[in-house]
Structures are given as C-alpha cells and as structure tokens.
C-alpha cells in the first residue's frame, strides 16, 4: 500500500465527484482513497455508533471501515450506495459489539488520574451532544428500529433510500419507523413539559 499525506484528500470535495477516484485509489491500495472515504463518512458513522450506545464508538467505526476496505472488491455502486453499505456494515458491527458486551462480565471503572489536555474538536463537541444523558434518554424512549432510523435520517442526514439500504428494510418501513419515532419523541417531550 502506498502511503499518502493525510491532507492529500480535501474534505471539502463533493463526495459524488470524488467517489470514483477514491474508489480507484482504494482498490489500488493507495491510502489517499481510504483517507477520502474515512474523512467523508468516518464522523457520521461514529455519531451513529455513539447514538446507538456503543461503548467504544471509535472501535466500531474503525471495524466497519476495515471490514469495508477488505471487501472493497465486492462493492458495486455509486457514492450513495457506498454510504448505505458502510452504514449496514457499521450496524452489524454494533450488533456484534452489543452481543459481546452482554457476554462480558462488568468491569469497575477506574479513574486513570490522567487528564485529557487537548482542546475539544467540533466533532468531539457534536459527539458529546449525542452522548448527553438527555439525548440518550429521548433516544431510549424509541424502539431499536426507530432509533436507527432517526439517527440515520435526522442526525446523519441519510436519504430514505440510503437508510433503507443500511437497515435492510423497504423505504415504506423506514418512513413508518421515522414517523412513529418522531411522534414518540414529540409525546415524550410534551409529557416532560406537562410534568415539569
């Protein structure tokens, strides 16, 4: 694999325009292609993992991209199909991670005493918002299927078709899940306002 500087792929490129060159480069083993895909979708996939309750969202994100890159020769489609494909892989990695956590005995948290001295990036701040107990409680009022659809559609901005492809459901089912999920969120927020 030929390594390229991290800045070789500009994040401001239109994914539709850059996708064919990223795909060609990645299939040829060029790190610039991999970096293009990761820079484009990595933060979205991580947000999805955080919103779905992953203990280690970075690991889920990385595992999804590694799995995708290993199977890149099998991929056939455009940038929209790739986006849905990576979300489907991430979804399976989340299911695997949740199953593994259920089999693992709980471990006590120990403070390391080491502070994180770096400044929070915009991505870290956005992820902190998704990890906020209030947001998690609202998402927790939804079924798992509704959570997936709301996170993919509302938080990450996937289209109906991309979401349907990612969760392996028909578009009509995604529409119903989104409508029911948003309705449930409205009721939960309204109930909280009444009880306050």
List keywords for this structure.
196 residues, 9 helices
How would you portray this structure in words?
The protein contains nine helices and no strands. The chain has about 200 residues and is an all-alpha fold.
What would a concise description of this structure say?
The protein is built from 9 helices and no strands.
Cα end-to-end separation: 58 Å
Task: Write down the overall mean pLDDT.
Answer: 79
The SSE string, one letter per element, is: HHHHHHHHH
Structural class: mainly alpha
Please give the structural blueprint:
Elements: H1 15-27, H2 31-51, H3 57-70, H4 79-103, H5 122-131, H6 133-140, H7 144-155, H8 160-167, H9 171-195
Helix pairs in contact: 1-2, 2-3, 2-5, 3-4, 4-8, 7-9, 8-9
């Amino acid at each position: 694999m030929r390594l390229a500087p991290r800045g070789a792929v500009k994040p401001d490129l239109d994914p539709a325009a850059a996708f064919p060159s990223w795909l060609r480069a990645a299939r040829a083993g060029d790190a610039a292609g991999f970096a293009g895909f990761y820079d484009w979708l990595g933060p979205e996939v991580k947000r999805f993992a955080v919103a779905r309750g992953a203990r280690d969202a970075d690991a889920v994100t990385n595992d999804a991209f590694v799995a995708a890159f290993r199977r890149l020769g099998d991929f056939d489609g455009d940038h929209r199909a790739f986006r849905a494909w990576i979300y489907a892989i991430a979804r399976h990695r989340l299911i695997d991670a949740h199953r593994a956590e259920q089999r693992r005995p709980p471990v006590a948290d120990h403070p390391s005493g080491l502070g994180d001295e770096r400044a929070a990036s915009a991505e870290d701040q956005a992820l902190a918002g998704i990890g906020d107990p209030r947001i998690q409680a609202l998402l927790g009022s939804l079924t798992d299927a509704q959570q997936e659809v709301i996170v993919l559609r509302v938080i990450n901005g996937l289209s109906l078709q991309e979401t349907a492809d990612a969760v392996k459901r028909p578009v009509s089912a995604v529409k119903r899940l989104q409508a029911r999920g948003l309705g449930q969120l409205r009721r939960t927020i309204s109930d909280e306002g009444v009880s306050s």
